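Input record (one chain):
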Amino acid sequence: MNSNYKSLVQIAAGIKDGSLKAVDVLEEHIARIDARESEIHAFNKLTLDDARANAARIDADAAAGRPLSPLAGVPIALKDNMCTRGVETTCSSKMLANWKPPYDGTVVRKLNEAGATIVGKTNLDEFAMGSSTENSAFGPTRNPLDTSRVPGGSSGGSAAAVAAGFAAASLGSDTGGSIRQPAALCGVVGVKPTYGYVSRYGLVAFASSLDQIGPFTHTVEDAAVLLDAIAGHDPMDSTSIPEALPALAPLVGADADLKIEGLRVGRITDMPEGAAPDVLERLEAAFKALADRGAEIVDVQVPAMTYGLTAYYLIAPAEASSNLARYDGVRYGMRVEAADTNAMYGATRAEGFGEEVERRIMIGTYALSAGYYDAYYGKALKVRRLIADDFAKAYAKADVLLTPTSPTTAFPFGAKTSDPLTMYLCDVFTIPTNLAGHAAMSVPFGNGADGLPIGVQILAPALGEPVMFRAAAALEKAVQA
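The corresponding structure, as predicted from the sequence alone:
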C-alpha cells in the first residue's frame, strides 16, 4: 500500500474516534483527483457535490454524538455499470451515454446505508468487455503507476482510482477477471467473491451466470470490511446465496490470529502456459513465503483449466448476445432514426456499440444459432462442468490454490489491440474461477523486471472466502516483512 494513503479501516476508525473529519478526508481525495484525473481518466462522472454534503452530515452526526455507520466518511468509487439513482450509468458506451437509472443497485444502497461517501462512477471497457480499459467510448484510463501503460480491465477505472488515491476503495465487476487483473496491474487488492455472494441487482448485465461484484482496496483487511458491507442475500436477486455469510473482517484484522500452519496450498502442475518469467518468479516466492509460515505445499492437477479460455469465449458472448438485445432504440438506449423499424435497429446498434461489443455479440449469436448450438455453446457448457469437477478434485487435496493473476505486468497502450486473441489471453488464469463460480482474489506481491507490480492470485472453493482471506493476509504480511 502507498504509505501516503490512509486505508479504509484507518479512515473509518479515525472518523469514529474524532481524530479525523469526514470533510477533511474527502478534500484530501478531491485534491488528488484535481491533480491527476485529467491525466489518468479514472472517472466517467464525479459526484462531488453529493459527496461533500454526505461528509458534512457525517461530521454533524459525530459532533452531536450520534452513532456512525461502519463506513461513515470513507470515499468510495463505483464502476459505471452499477445503477445509481438519478446519476448517469453509462457502461462506458454511447448506447447509454445519458441514461439515469430510477433506482439504486443493491450494493449502492448498502454503501449508502453504511455511510460511505461515493465520489463518482469509474471508467471501464464498454459493457465490461475488455482487459485494458481501451474499449471505453469515452477514452482510455491510464495506469497511475506508469501512464504509458494500461490499468487492466474491464474495471480499469476502479483499480486506477484506488491506486491513485482518488478513493480509499472502489467496487468493480468480474466476469472473467475484470477485478483481479486490473488489481494486479495497478498494485492493489482485488476480490472476486463466490458467485451469488454479492447481489447483482442493479448491475448492468454482461454475462449473467458469470458476473460478480467485488472490492478494490489498499489492504486485505480493507477488502474484507468492504466485502462484509456489500455481501448477503438479496430477494431482488434470485441467484444470491440464501445462507448467512460469515464475517471476514475479524479473520484478518489487527487482532486476528494469522497463523497458517497446516494450510494446504495447491500448486497446479498443469497450469496454462503464458506467464512471463518475472511473474512465475514472484509466484514461486509466494509459495515459499507461505511454506515458511507453516503452510503445506501440495501438487494438484486441474486438466480442464487449459480449456477455460475457449469455453468462456463461447459462453460469455452467448449470454452477452442475449442480454444486449434489449438495446435496440426502443426499450433501452439511444436511437438513430431511419426509414423503418428494422433499419432503425441496425443503425442504432451500429452507432451505439463499439467494435469489441459488436464482435462479442456476433460470436455469441453465432454460437447460439440453429445448427451450431450443440457444436459450440453446448460443448462449452460441458467444458464448464469439467472445470468445476477438476477444481473439486483439487480442493479435496488443497485448501487454496495459487496462480499468477495476469501473465504479465501492465502493458503499453496499443500493444494488444490489433489482435483480440492476444488480449483475451490476459485472462487465461482468471477465467476458470468464474466458470466454476468459485472465489478468487489478487494480492500485490512485489514487482516485475520493469518495476511494475505483480499480483498473485489465491483461488478457493465456493464459499471459501474465510480461508482465502487468511492466506491473502499471510501473503500481504510476507511482502511487507
